[in-house]
Amino acid sequence: MMRPIDLLKRSSALQVVVRKESVDDVERVSRESQQRSLWSAAGVAVLLERLESEGREQAEVIRVAALRGGTINREDVHEICGYEDDRMLRGFTLPTARITRDLQQDGIVAEGADPVLTTVYRGGAKAAAFRIPAEMSTILTEDQVSEDAE
User: Fold this and answer.
1) To pair with 15 at 20 to 30 A between CA atoms, which of 31, 52, 63, 64?
2) Under a CB-based contact definition with an 8 Å cutoff, are residues 50 and 42 in contact?
3) Nearest 5 degrees, angle CA 42-CA 129-CA 80?
4) Distance between CA 134 and CA 116 in Å, rounded?
5) Diameter of the chain measured on Cα atoms
6) 9: buried, middle or exposed (CB in 10 Å: 19+, 13-18, 0-12)?
7) pLDDT value for 50
8) What is the reported pLDDT for 5?
9) Which residues of the chain have pLDDT under 70?
């Protein structure tokens, strides 16, 4: 149950040699991940509103991904969007990236926020799934619980 940096620093106890550069890299990544900007509830709401106003299926894909722990597979994307099975999903993340940039320019979304949809590849050129940021998943599932309670 150690953090990766602590394990690397104690590698000599395991009789493993770790280069100092590796330890430095892990420390840097750890610092950067702690400092990254997160999506806010307001930013998520505006993003979804914009996607819906443009008639984009990505809004529903994002909501379903949130309910499934943050990841949605390609088959479910095809079903939600009404796509044929052989349709490529190349460019599927572009509308969310464009809207995110617009929201960042307007100061609604922080500059360092993770991409809304990250493509997951599992060998090959086809997208196997899409992942949303963890905080977005939390925001949307909390919203769903609140709606269900009302």
Assistant:
1) 31
2) no
3) 70
4) 10
5) 59
6) middle
7) 98
8) 66
9) 1-3, 5, 7-8, 28-36, 143-150
HEC string of the chain equals: CCCHHHHHHCHHHHCCCCCHHHHHHHHHHHHHHHHCCCCCHHHHHHHHHHHHHCCCCHHHHHHHHHHCCCEEEHHHHHHHHCCCCCCCCCCCCHHHHHHHHHHHHCCCCCCCCCCCCEEEECCCCCEEEEECCHHHHHHHHHHHHHHHHC
Ramachandran region, residue 11 (left: φ > 0; alpha: ψ -120 to 50; beta: rest): alpha
- Map tokens 């991904």 to a residue: 65
pLDDT at 68: 95
CA 62 to chain centroid, in Å, comes to: 10
Alpha-carbon distance of 47 to 41, in angstroms, equals 10
Q: What is the pLDDT of residue 123?
A: 83
Of the candidates 57, 47, 107, the residue with the CA atom closest to the CA atom of residue 78: 57
| Integer Rg of the chain from CA | 19
CA dist 139 and 117 (Å) reads 15
